[in-house]
Amino acid sequence: MRARLAVQLIVLASAPTCAARDLSAINPPFPRIANCYGSGLGWQTWENGAEYWSKVDLFIGGGYDIHYDWDNERWPGVLQRVEANLARIREVNPHALALPYVDVIEGPLNPAVPDNWWVRDEKGAKTSGWPGMDRIRTDLPEVLQYNLDMVRERVLGHECFDGVFYDCWSPDDWLVPRTAELRDGQAVVMLNAWNLPVTGFEHLNGALSEDEMNRVIEGKVEFDDLLARYLRWTSESRKPAVTTLVCRPQGIDDDPWRWAKLSHEERVAIPERARAEDERTMRFGLATALMGDGYFGFDSGTMGRGNWWWYKEYDAPLGYPKGDAARALDGTWVREFDGGTVIVNGTQYDAVVDLPRNCRDVSTGRVGNRFTLSLFDGRIYLPTDGPPTAGEDVAPTITLAPPERTRLTTLDGGLVAVQTPAGLEVRLETTGAPRNILWRGRTLLTGGWPVAASPPWTPFRAESAQQPAPPAVSADGKARLSYRGTLVEGDRRVDFTESCEVGPEGRFSIAFDCTAMTDLDLRMWRHYFAFPVAQYAGAEAEADGKRVVLPPALGDNPELLPASSSLVVRTADTEVTISASLPMGLVDHRKWGMNEYLLAGYPVSGEVKQGTRWRVDLEVRVRDRDQR
Question: Model pTM?
C-alpha cells in the first residue's frame, strides 16, 4: 500500500553540504530563540534571511514541511535551498539545530494517499480539523510504518537535518520510540501535543508548548503546573534538549476557520498591531523559558507561526546559568546567569523585587535595585555601575492581601477584579467571561462562561459586549456586574445578558439569558466549571448521594458522576459547592486532552430555531474545611 505514495529518492544538484555533526556539543548561550514553522529556509535566499537566521538557535520546520505530500515536485528545489542556507547558518552559529516538520494526522487532497487512510464520518465524508486538510487514520499500522520510512529516508537521509518534528502528535509506544532509534539513536526527536505531556522523556529530546503561556494568562492553565512540566522536560529528556515555549500576543484570535476567511492584508495587519500592543506576553514567555534550558519563540500564533520578530531582550548577554531556578517566597521564580538575573512572575498579583545591587532592566532601561514586576510578566536585569533612575518604580496595582471590604480593581485590558474579605476573587473580562476564579490567591476553578461552536468546530465569540451599568459594591458588601452582548459565528447570532454577583462570604453567582437571533446549528453549547487535576486529584466529589474520589490517573471510564443540579467537591482544605439550573455531569477531561475534571451542562444543542430563549443560573460557594 505504501508503494502508491513512494517516489524516487530526491537527488540534489551540487550545493553546499552540511557535514555530520556531534550533537553532544550543542549548547548555545542564553536566551535560546526558536522559530516555529516560518523561518523560510526553503523559500528565501541567504541575502534575504542571513541577518535573522544567524541569530536563531532552533529551526522547527520553515521550509521542508510535509503533509502527506512527499511526492510534490517542489521538494527538490526546496531541499537545495534549505541545505545551502543551513550550511551558511552553521558557519556563524554552529549550535543551530534544524528539525523538519512532519504532519502524521492530516494531509491535503492528495490522490496518491490510499482511500482507506482517510478518516470518514458516518456519512462517508472526509473529516477535517484544519482548513484545507483532512484527517488520516493513524490507527492503521501501515500509516505509522509509512511515516517512519519516509522520515528515515527523506528527512534523516539528509545530513543537514538534525532530526524531526512531529506536529499534533503525543508520545506513543510505536512511532516515537522507533524514530528515536534512527541514526544509531542520535536523531533529535521533538513533537507537539499542544500542552507539554508528562510522558515520553526517554525517547524524546523535547516537546513544543504551543500557546500554553497564553492559556496561563487566560486562567486555563496553572503557571506552577506548566513550569514544573517544562523544567522536567528540559532536565529529563534526551540531549540535546529542545523543549520550546512558544506564545502569541493576547489580542490575536487564533480560530483557523475565521483566519482562513481573512484577506492577505488583514493577515498581515492583525499580527503587527497585536505585536506592538503586547510585549508583556513576550517577556513573560521568555523569562519562563529562561527558568529551564529550553528555547523560546514569540509570533502571531497558530494562524501565522514563525514571524521574524526580534526584541532587545533576545540580545541580553546572559551567557550560561549559574544554577537552577528557585522559587521565592512571594511566588516569583529567579535564575542567576553569568551575565545577569532573570525573574518571572507567574502569580496573579504584582510583586516588588529587591536585588542585591543596582541593575538595569533590559525592557525599560530603568536602573536601581527595587522594581515592581507585574503579574504575568518577566524581566532581565543586568548589573550596572550607571546612576540609578530617579524616583520609585510604579506602585503595584493588585496584591494578595484581602481587603477589609469588597474591592473592585480595573486591570490591564479592562479586566475587572473583585476581591472579597473572605479570600474569594473573581476577575471578569470586558465580555463578562470569568478569566480567574481564585481562593486565597490560588485558582479555585475555571469556567463560568459558555463554550459554543458550530460544526465542525467553529466557535462563537462575543461581539458588541458592553456593561449597561458600571460595576458597583453595595452597602452589604456585594459586588454586582452586568454585561450585554452578542455571540457571533458567521451569520449566526445569539444575544445574551449576564449578571454576576460576588458576595463577601465566599459566594458568587452568574446568570445568563440567551436569545437565538438566527436559526442555529450547534455542535456544542456548554456551560461548565473545571477543576485542575494538579489541585484536585484525590479530592472527594459528591452529587445526589453518590461519591467518587477524583482519580490521580486517567482510568478506563472518564464518566465520574452523572448529571445533577448540585455538586460538592472536598479537598483537605476547602469545600466547593456548585449549584445550577440545569443538570451538569462530571467527567475526567484528560480523556480529551485537558488536564482537568470537567463539570458541564448543555442547555441547547443541534438545530435551534430563531427566537428560542433559554436561561442558565450558576452559583459557587467555597469555604475552608475547618469552618463549622
Answer: 0.88
